[in-house]
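hey m, so remember when u said the tokens were messed up on ur end? i reran from scratch. heres the input so u can diff it against urs
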Amino acid sequence: MKKSYIALALLTVILDQATKYLVNNFISPFSTLEILPFLNLVNVRNTGSAFGMFRDIGNNIFIIISVAAIAFIFYMLIKGREDRFSLSLILGGATGNLLDRIFRGSVVDFIDVFAGRLHWPAFNVADSALTIGIGIIFIKLFPNRHETSENKLHKTQN
């Protein structure tokens, strides 16, 4: 496993934790800082999973699930057959949110994107890294649908 992939995961954790530190120290809980007409910074806590679902399960269950997921992702990185860039982003994001759960009892979310009164649930840098990593893996699962007829014919002749 290349050290650059671990460095990417570590950079993701550092960026995530640094932004959460800034939010915790400069934005009061549940207050709003307007940045752009479609973007606010907020300071909210998520005790559930994605989109705040499963809040009633409890923090300890999410910690156990996160540790298991991180161990599996780390194994996949070592094995080296999957997309290491994507796995590094997922590893960094999962670790960043795990640290929140362990040390704060919930995940700090602060990016509030909206259109009018429609708000996407608040998220953070770790969530963004997870989404990008999972998205890249998901996209790579599908074959290229934009192949030309000539390329398809060439493949069938070989």
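this time it looks ok to me. The chain has a mean pLDDT of 88. if urs says something different then somethings off w ur setup not the seq
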